[in-house]
Amino acid sequence: MQYFLNGLPLGAIYAIVALSYSLIYASSGVLNWSQGDMVMLGAYLGFTVVQLLHLGFTPALFISMAVVAAVGVAVQYFILRPLRERQSPPINVVIATLGVAIMARNIALAIWGPDAQNFPSPVSPAPIQIGVLSITRQDILIVVIGILLMLVLHLLLHRSREGKALRAVAQDRYAAVLMGIDTGRSDAVAFATSAALGAAAGILVAPIFFVTFNMGAGLGLKGFVAAVIGGLGNIPGAIAGGFFLGVLESVTGGQISSGYRDAITYALLILVLWLRPSGLFIRKNRQKV
Amino acid sequence: MNRKVISLFFVMALVILSALSLTGYGSAQTQKTIKIGVVGPESGGSAQLGQGQHKAIQMAVDEINAVKGTGEWKLEVFFEDDEGNPTKSASATNKLLQQSEVNIIIGAIHSSATLADMVITQRAGIPQITSGSTGSSITEQNNKWIFRTAVNDEFQANALIKHAKETLKVQKVATFTAADDYGQSGAKLLAAAAQKEGLQLSANPTYNNGDKDFKPQILAIKDSGAQAIFMWGLYTEAALIAKQARQLGVDVQLYGASGMAALKLIELGGDAAQGLVLTQSFLPVSTDPKVMEFVNKYKAKYQDSPIPHAAQAYDTVYIIADAVKRANSVKPEELREAIAKTTGLKLVTGQPKFNPKGDDIGKNLLITVIKGDKFELVKTVTGS
């Protein structure tokens, strides 16, 4: 039970990162490998806002989400769009996003240095005991903000004009163009939202994992596995995949062997790709987003 | 006919080239320079260790050259970053040997990296001194080219377990170690030391470097009923383990070895790191005049307090300087011989003297505890 509880905050983080992969994949058909490093950028920007401007956790969260969203748009505008206009094969776009990831990592290394940084938690670090179980306020905060973010994303996708356009493009890009939807604009919206989600994940995870320039690599890959488990491009699937992976890692790490934890995670990735490429949780609707 | 002329030219060119390279070698000899190559993690999770090593070595080299401490010999130093990764460390060592043509290597800090580098220096027949790696297997490879100026892990493990038994009267202990050479050799030595002291080892989980979530393993340790946890790894992971243990309500005494002895451990660990007991070979707050002199010079130069790895690296340069002066040569075999015979030096971390395996047995071991923002001395254990 304690293992299950410990897996939830980790799961929430994986779910947010998985969402950011799936959102971009669904709307523009691109696998954006720089997502993990948006998490890292978000954490560093939040860290800088807290350290230099002495602002609290909440303003840091919003400022960092906004700035990283702008970075996301820049990635879309300067890298994805020109490649698309040149009709480059998808593999080139994927490689370009990998390039962005490595660039981001090295820029972070140059600015913030190679050492891990301690991100102060906005809540007391003392654990809350419930019988034999214990959980920290930061863990609760992660799960609550994570779920809030998912709800906000759901509302944006279903209620706002941009969200509806995004879903239309996800359903059928060609038809959406015929309907007069600006697909470039909807790509930008997808990249901005995904980057902001990544930044939020980064700030949420920073107080428990520290901030390091290479934190994006691990989180990005795990988030990707979660997205695949849930079916790439499937939004509810990404959320379920994230929580599933978080709890699975916590339980296998404690009950089987921590040494095999990552091996089990990636074995699962291969199994899913092999047996259920559309995701573990998909049932009837094959509609994306 | 024509072909003969060409081949003649070719042979002549070869002769001239080899003559040139010979004179090049000769002129290097008359300048009397010893080239020191340094390998260490200057970026990545243990960057603080590599950077401390880099700064201290640069300082020692500048000092020795300024006062001509090695007579006619001049020290020249080349640095390579290995990020703590054995593969990168091996290629850094290769680069130092082939491009910079160094006469001796100082490095690396991660035991797994040092083990990889040793293969290369042994093949090339070049002496190597590690001032940061404590893994016991390093000096058990029957490799005559390796020396160690860090405190051997076996010495540390025995001292830690003994200290825990004497002060806390613990009976059940757990180890929690990194899954690399360094952590695994630590785990083995801790288990052996616990057995020797009659303590029960109740759990011995491991983790991978770079892991962020240690809660599953900590829970397993908690369930095993251990009264003390002995960590063997580096500071970033140790800080996270301390934090997550406290978050899970595990408040048993934590112990660690010299690999995590960096001020960053205190900064990252915060309240959770308070009271953590660890062994190291050097404390900047010591009243020993040698230590004070080194700390003051280091602070004046870098506006920063030196870490143990820095002190050990600093001493290592002095050992090399002493050896090259006595050998009056950089021929690998003679240099190696001179290092092996080191004696009578009084340095910052002890009075170096190497045993036949290459371990420095003249070192002092300090048992320290984290209090506030610094390490405090609990007691000093003298070497065998």
Question: Secondary-structure map with pairings?
Answer:
The complex is a heterodimer of chains A (289) and B (384).
Chain A: H1 2-28, H2 35-52, H3 57-85, H4 90-112, E1 127-130, E2 133-136, H5 137-159, H6 161-171, H7 173-178, H8 183-209, H9 215-229, H10 235-255, H11 261-275
Antiparallel strand pairs in A: 1-2
Helix pairs in contact in A: 1-5, 1-8, 1-9, 1-10, 2-3, 2-4, 2-8, 2-9, 3-4, 3-8, 5-6, 5-8, 6-8, 9-10, 9-11, 10-11
Chain B: H1 2-31, E1 33-40, H2 47-66, E2 74-81, H3 86-98, E3 104-106, H4 111-124, E4 128-130, E5 146-148, H5 153-168, E6 172-178, H6 181-196, E7 200-203, E8 206-207, H7 215-224, E9 228-232, H8 235-247, E10 253-256, H9 263-269, E11 277-280, H10 289-302, H11 308-327, H12 332-340, E12 364-371, E13 374-382
Parallel strand pairs in B: 1-2, 1-3, 3-4, 4-5, 6-7, 6-8, 6-9, 9-10, 10-11
Antiparallel strand pairs in B: 11-12, 12-13
Count, helices of chain B? 12
- CATH class of the largest domain in chain B reads Alpha Beta
Q: Helix share of residues of chain B?
A: 40-55%
Biggest interface between chains: A-B, 33 and 35 residues
Tally of DSSP β-strands of chain A: 2
The secondary structure category of chain B is alpha/beta
As for the number of domains of chain B, it is: 2
Major sheet description of chain B: 8 strands, mixed
CATH architecture label of the largest domain in chain B: 3-Layer(aba) Sandwich
Order of the strands making up the biggest sheet of chain A: 1-2
User: Can you tell me the CATH class of chain A?
Assistant: Mainly Alpha
Explain what the structure shows.
The complex is a heterodimer of chains A (289) and B (384). Chain A has one domain: ABC transporter involved in vitamin B12 uptake, BtuC (Orthogonal Bundle), CATH 1.10.3470. In chain A, 74% of the residues lie in helices and 3% in strands. Chain A has 11 helices and 2 strands; from the N terminus they run H-H-H-H-E-E-H-H-H-H-H-H-H. In chain A, a hairpin with a 2-residue loop joins strand 1 and strand 2. The model of chain A has no long low-confidence stretch (mean pLDDT 87). Chain B has 384 residues and is of the alpha/beta class. Chain B folds into 2 domains: 196 residues, 3-Layer(aba) Sandwich (Rossmann fold), CATH 3.40.50.2300; 128 residues, 3-Layer(aba) Sandwich (Rossmann fold). In chain B, helix 5 packs across helix 6. About 2% of the residues of chain B have low confidence. Chains A and B meet through helix 1 and helix 10 of A and strand 8, helix 7, helix 8 and helix 9 of B.
